[in-house]
Design brief:
mainly beta, Immunoglobulin-like, 6-stranded mixed sheet, rod-shaped
Amino acid sequence: MHTNRISPARKILAQLAALLGLALLAGCETVTLTNLTPASVPENPSQIYTFTLRVTPRTNNVPKPSITPHIVVDAQSFTMKPSALGEGLYEFEYQVPAGRDDIAYYYLVTYNVEGNGVATPGDAYTEVAHVKLVRRYVLSLEVNRGPVGARVSVLGRGFTAQDVVYFTGTPARTVFDSSTSLSFYVPPLEAGKNYSVALNGAPGYSPVGTFHIDPSNVTVSPTSLSLRTGARQTLTFSIANAAPPGGTLLDIATDAPESVIMPEVIVPQGQTSVTVTVEGGKPGNANLFLRGFGAGEISVPVSVTAK
């Protein structure tokens, strides 16, 4: 039997070719990096945020134990740990310094490519990504329908005293209680329609949801007033159904504010009527207007004469 023997030179060339192949393989995309960290996250009191990366080998030549993911953030490199959520997932929890609202970072993964008994180190990295910390976020409306004047809460956090709720561009009377408590009164708009609700303030514009305004009626007694300057008379407003939690605001306007002096009118929670005292001011003729009820507007004439 005749055996062809490989010369030493051919052995060297074969080894060099194998090494070159591994080097080329390591230089190609032998692993895929998928950033699973969202671009924005709600701010939390502990200021600790989780970064998640998926590493997927694209060849069997990359042993999984050799994969070591790192996250580089704030000029520091940290080793990520395997996640309990699944194979190939890695996590790192980072505590952000106070006052920050943006975090820049990228991932760097080192690994080995094995072949012909040789292990060649390789690496892969992502582009720089950013996480924005959202100090204000809106979860939803407490309810999505109700009559004009109903008080409705907005669920969320990061509210400010400058925030105003809008109904398809129309501002609603907004009540700021705290950074986690905000509510508004349904504005006097046409009933039987849906309106897009949004929150606008210093942090920007945030869609909240859709609200349906239901029809409602109000009766006023007496239907007109005749006063002298400084004199007082009561005016009773009645609604068809008991006022919801927070009461029902009757947003009353007048065309002669110097002639008519009266307090804000809110039907208390669980009640169907409220009585207020109206005082005569500067002599003249005026009207009280209540919009969004019945046929669309209720008018109460007021006559004020001098003492």
